[in-house]
Amino acid sequence: MMGGLEIKILDFGLARITDPDAAVTTMVSEVGQIKGTLPYMSPEQVRGNPNEIDVRSDVYSLGVILYELLTDQLPYEVHRTSLPEAIRVICEEPPKPPGRVVSKTHSHAAVKALKIDRDVETIVLKALEKVPEHRYQSAVVLAEDVERYLIDQPILARPPSAMYQFRKLVAQHKVPFAFVVALFVLLLGFALTMAVQRGRIVRERDRAIAAERLAAEQRDMAERSRQEAEASVKRAQEAEQRAQAEAGRASAEADHARAAKAVAEQRTVEAIAATEETNR
Fold it and tell me: Is pTM beyond 0.85 here?
């Protein structure tokens, strides 16, 4: 302990054994040139070729430590397998994303609610790449990317998509972005209000036009009905006039017939009287 801090010595898997003490050798794995703590060793280390080992192997070991800090587990549980199987797993199998490990292995609700940021997960998985060229090329570069994450700048480990860059830009300028969002929401609300009012005005106008059209149709129907009624009255009057005229003609003809009959009867009487006078 020093100043309230606890000092821990970490094995990155790069140390070479100089002490033949059996207690030490039992903590490492040795097959040919393989030396180190197996779960923290990079693929090139477990393959046993010293020419492939460089600072990028340190980056891999740092990735294992970060993975363990986040998940409380190692990327590969190789301590329960045979050495050949452990070497195969480290060299061939990809590690599970830390976020998936946390959500599946912790049953406590508060722990399960914790969500590992995707940038942190990406940084760790880049450090654990199988191929050294795909990892951070030094611990300094890894530290710089962690620093970028902490200040909400785009990290190098993630492809710079437009959405990702925008999200990081927003994180860096939260206050101006919040103002812009608030202004946008205000304008959107105003636009929606105007649209609703305009829709109401349009609907009222359409209803007024429809009512006027209906009234015009009703006026036309009333006018047609009035004209038809007037025509019917006129036809009735004409029929009555014709009937009266016919009745007048019939009455005149009857009077004429009666007069002719009376004349005929008078002439008959006169003829009879004349005949009787002659006979005397």
Answer: no
